[in-house]
């Protein structure tokens, strides 16, 4: 798994790690039971503080994405498909809200926005 950090991002480093790991889990790149790098190893690879990676792992565990077993490490948690689907729908909603805000800023009519959405769907 490759994590790319950006100093230009407005998000803290731990949040960038958390989001990228969640995305890898939701997309199926990381599967239930997959072992994650240790907190120290990830910190060393990314050249960041151990406290930063610890915060990311804590947030992932709190949100149910990973499980930590004492003496063994951290692993992708078993997740049911309904939960994964809900998480993806939540992400879609967030993106749509941002798109609608941009459309309003551009003074785009509802009809134009719906036509654009339909066009983009049909390209798939």
UniProtKB/TrEMBL annotation:
Keyword annotations: DNA-binding, Transcription, Transcription regulation
InterPro entries, sorted: Tscrpt_reg_HTH_GntR, WH-like_DNA-bd_sf, WH_DNA-bd_sf
Domain HTH gntR-type stretches: 11-79
Record-linked PROSITE patterns: HTH_GNTR
Coiled-coil annotated residue ranges, if any: none
GO molecular function: DNA binding; DNA-binding transcription factor activity
Pfam families (alphabetical): GntR (PF00392)
Keyword rRNA-binding applies: no
Name of the protein in its database record: GntR family transcriptional regulator
Taxonomic source organism: Lysinibacillus odysseyi 34hs-1 = NBRC 100172
UniProt lineage: Bacteria, Bacillati, Bacillota, Bacilli, Bacillales
């Amino acid at each position: 798994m490759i994590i790319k950090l950006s100093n230009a991002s407005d998000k803290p480093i731990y949040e960038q790690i958390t989001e990228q790991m969640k995305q890898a889990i939701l997309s199926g790149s990381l599967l239930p039971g997959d072992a994650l790098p240790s907190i120290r190893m990830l910190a060393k690879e990314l050249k960041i503080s151990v406290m930063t990676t610890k915060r990311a792992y804590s947030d992932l565990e709190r949100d149910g994405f990973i499980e930590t077993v004492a003496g063994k490490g951290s692993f992708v948690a078993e997740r049911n498909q309904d939960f994964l689907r809900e998480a993806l729908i939540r992400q879609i909603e967030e993106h749509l809200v941002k798109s609608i805000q941009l459309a309003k800023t551009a003074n785009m009519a509802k009809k134009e926005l719906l036509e654009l959405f339909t066009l983009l769907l049909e390209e798939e």
